[in-house]
Amino acid sequence: MLQKMMERIVRVVKLDATVYAEIEQDEAANVEAAIIVGVASLLTALGAAIAVWGYGGRFGTGLGTFFISLISGMVLNWLLWAYVTMLVGTKLFGGETTFAEMARTLGYANAPRVLGILSAITCLGAIIGFVAWILSLVAGFFAVRESLDLPTDKSIITMVISGVIVFILSFVVALIL
């Protein structure tokens, strides 16, 4: 399992769009996707917490940042985005996918976020974090396009609509927390 997962991660980072059809059909990849999201969220949250501490933040502030980043990375960035994207793509554009298929492919698309640990590096951290986010976004585009079997334009619109919805929901959650 680990070798196949690592091979797929390399293909995701190389932006090999063909890997998503393979992941979409592999029901055993649910656990792999969850592991990838968990590790990426953990490393991104850790990088954010270290950055807060490095910029003179208190331990409690960094710890709070860690847990908020971890939870939002796992729940909002993956499961909610997968669900909203599935709904938008299937209901508005007639795409064909299930929640599990969308969650698997978007879970793998989170692989570039492991670079989030490097956001703790002074001066370069923000740039590295941004690059990781862009890579993950592009990988997410391929995941959406391949999972929903939609053309490029409808895939982009699906991502924009679902991204706005998830952003608004994330903002509301951040206000509550």
Question: What can you see in these coordinates?
Answer:
Helices cover 80% and strands 0% of the residues. It has 177 residues and is mainly α. It has one domain. Helix 5 (99-109) packs antiparallel against helix 6 (125-148). The chain is globular and about 45 Å long.
Largest sheet: none
Tell me the Rg in angstroms. 16 Å
Gross morphology is globular
The overall number of domains is 1
Query: Given the helix and strand composition, which structural class is it?
Result: mainly alpha
Helix content: over 70%
| Nearest-integer average pLDDT | 86
Q: Could you tell me how far the N terminus lies from the C terminus, measured between alpha carbons in angstroms?
A: 37 Å
Describe how the helices and strands are arranged.
Elements: H1 2-13, H2 18-25, H3 29-54, H4 59-93, H5 99-109, H6 125-148, H7 152-176
Helix pairs in contact: 2-5, 2-6, 3-4, 3-5, 4-5, 4-7, 5-6, 6-7
List keywords for this structure.
single chain; mainly alpha; globular
Quick rundown:
The chain is mostly helical.
